[in-house]
Amino acid sequence: MTQSLAAAPANDVPLRTIVLLAGAAFASSVNIRAIDPLLPQIADTFGASIGRAAQIVTLFTIGYGLTQLLFGPIGDRLGKYLVVALTTLVAGAATAACAFAASLEMLTIARFAAGGFAAAAIPLAFAWIGDAVPFERRQPVLARFLTAQMTGIILGQAAGGILGDLVGWRGVFLIVGGIHTLAGLGMLAELKLNPHAQPPAAPASLRLSSVLASMARIVGRPWSRILLFAVFAEALALYGAFAYIGADLRHRFGLSYTMVGLVMALYGIGAILYSITAKPMLARLGERGLVIGGGLLMGLAFAGLALAPRVEVVAPLMMLLGLAFYMMHNTLQTSATQMAPEARGLGVSLFAFALFMGQSIGVAAAAPVMDGYGAQPIYLAAAVLLPLAALWFRAMLSRRP
Question: What whole-number distance in Å separates Cα of residue 305 and Cα of residue 351?
Fold first, then answer.
């Protein structure tokens, strides 16, 4: 974020500042996943198929991905912490507006706006930590920060299902909007109290020509292209299948929305298990071991989901999927924080853009398969693609500068 912060020891970064930043990441994560268990309920409200209702997931992630290219350079210019605080507040308002949608089209537009403003929190948080923590210490720190993100996913999925039964999907949007608002207000207060959160003394240029030149310079590096393609492929395969797990559990096993949310929340439990064990796993397996292990275990988990005869089999597979995904993904995103140290906000935002474009294309491509054949063929495709992506990226790691 700032030159002085980048030079400071990691243990000089105030804990409260990071905790409040984690609150915004938590809110963004809740928003991303809270609606997954509720797709059947939303489809019933508007008389739509699951595949058509899934457009609210697709448009949310498109909005999330597109605005990365905007908020990255703005964060480098105005200060990552300030930009996260302001966009978190606007995301809260847009999410609350979803509760009042009178049609699926109106809901889709509101979700697009919510995704666009929720997008700044996690990538700029990673970039801010990248400025604050030396690279050799960064992966364990990011793994611990991941706990807030994963807690948001767990509560988003579990509470989305539970609250969907209690207050309906409209009530869920109001609650999630309130979480964003509280997180944004906390960060604005921190900006007044803590110099570490202040905007940079020597801000980057926001001229379009400068931003485009920086973007071209980053994408022109061979390692950057490898990293961007890897996260795009990972997201396309994983999230193209993941978005339909809730609907599949509902229809294949007849679960309530509460049970759907609880089963899906086990994914986040697996991710938190990774965050706790990341440091010893990294020491034992190395980056290549984490990548190939994560890819193979994700393939195993999706193959198991396709063949699971009952929900008791699904539960441990969801936990395995969360652990395996972050074994691979945290290695990718740690590398992303060093992809462009001179414009870290833009570099991490390009990474997030590739991630969410992969996700949105994956969800959209899988929608007709879901409507015509169910989720099992989508799971099997992910079971093949994710290990292949991991094998390829493991081989490419030798090319990293």
Answer: 29
Lowest mean pLDDT among 40-44, 124-128, 321-325: 124-128
pLDDT at 185: 94
d(CA 125, CA 351): 13
Q: Which ranges of 67-134 does DSSP label H, i.e. alpha helix?
A: 68-78, 80-98, 104-118, 121-132
Rounded CA-CA distance 200/82 in Å is: 10
Q: Are 39 and 29 in contact (CB under 8 A)?
A: no
Distance CA 129, CA 1 (A): 8
Q: Please name the amino acid found at residue 112.
A: F
Q: Which amino acid is at 248?
A: D
Q: How many CA atoms lie within 13 Å of 379's alpha carbon, on the beta-carbon side? A: 22
Burial 210-246 (b: 16+ CB within 10 A, else e): ebeebbeebeeeebbebbbbbbbbbbbbbbbbbbbbb
What is each CA distance from 307 to 193, 248, 373, in whole angstroms?
A: 54, 12, 14
- Amino acid 187 reads M
Q: What is the mean predicted confidence (pLDDT) over 332-340?
A: 80
